[in-house]
Amino acid sequence: MFATVGNKAITQSDIINEIKIILILTGQSFTQDIKEQLQSRAIQSIIKRNIKKIEIEKYNSLTFNQPDVDKGLKKLAGNLFMDLDTFENTFIANGIPFQMLLIKYK
Question: What are the helix (H) ranges across the chain?
């Protein structure tokens, strides 16, 4: 375990997966030159997501507009010149459940 935010644990594998997500979304490849910067961004992103999860769990009545989520995902895919299926398959090929991205952007 790397750290906790409230009752949410952050593991080293969470950080690695978050780095992969950042690399996919920015169209970059991993290099040792940017390792520390990526790790810092990944940790900050996970902390923000865990805070968001904690707050969402407090209010069971919150809902998300699925068409807006779909539109956002299509925009992210389009920024990388991919259709949504290719975008999702990129995550799967990198061992990252696509649900992680959905959680990140809801």
Answer: 12-26, 35-58, 66-79, 84-93, 98-105
9 secondary structure, DSSP code: E
- Predicted confidence (pLDDT) per residue in 80-90, tens digit: 999 999 999 99
- Rounded to whole angstroms, the Cα distance separating 66 from 90 reads 22
Instruction: Classify domain 3-105 by CATH number.
Output: 1.10.4030
Domain-wise residue ranges, the chain: 3-105
In angstroms and rounded to an integer, the radius of gyration of the C-alpha atoms of the chain is: 15
User: At which residue do the structure tokens 């906790």 appear?
Assistant: 4
Question: What does the pLDDT look like over 65-75, one tens digit per residue?
Answer: 889 888 999 99
Here the tokens at position 105 are 């952007």
- Rounded to two decimals, the pTM is 0.83
